[in-house]
């Protein structure tokens, strides 16, 4: 976490697509930004989840992911 920004990453342990593609072992990562809790604050933001078939550094923030406004609700970074 970096103040009001956080990233999360990991490896899929089980699951498959509706077409039966095995997702195990795929690395996933995303980024979020908490813009505040007031209705007067800008909307919180999040990135689409990124995927990699190669190992990624789970401690490195994925700052290159574009952020998009959350239409409703709250992102809370602690």
Derived structural class: mainly beta
Shape type: elongated
Low-confidence residue ranges: none
Mean pLDDT: 88
How far the N terminus sits from the C terminus, by CA atoms, comes to: 8 Å
* SSE succession: EEEEE
Instruction: Count every helix, treating DSSP H or I runs of 4 or more residues as helices.
Output: 0
What percent of residues are in strands?
A: 25-35%
The proportion of residues forming helix, as a percent range, comes to under 10%
Strands, total number: 5
For the sheet with most strands, the description reads:
5 strands, antiparallel
Gyration radius, rounded: 15 Å
Any overview of this molecule?
This protein has strands at about 5-10, 25-35, 45, 50, 70. It has about 80 residues and is mainly beta. The chain is about 0% helix and about 25% strand. It has no helices and 5 strands. The model has no long low-confidence stretch (mean pLDDT about 90). Strands 1, 2, 3, 4 and 5 form a 5-stranded antiparallel sheet that branches. The protein is elongated.
What's the SSE blueprint?
Layout: E1 5-11, E2 27-33, E3 45-46, E4 50-52, E5 68-69
Descriptors for this entry?
single chain, 78 residues, elongated
Structure summarized in a few sentences:
By secondary structure, the chain is an all-beta fold.
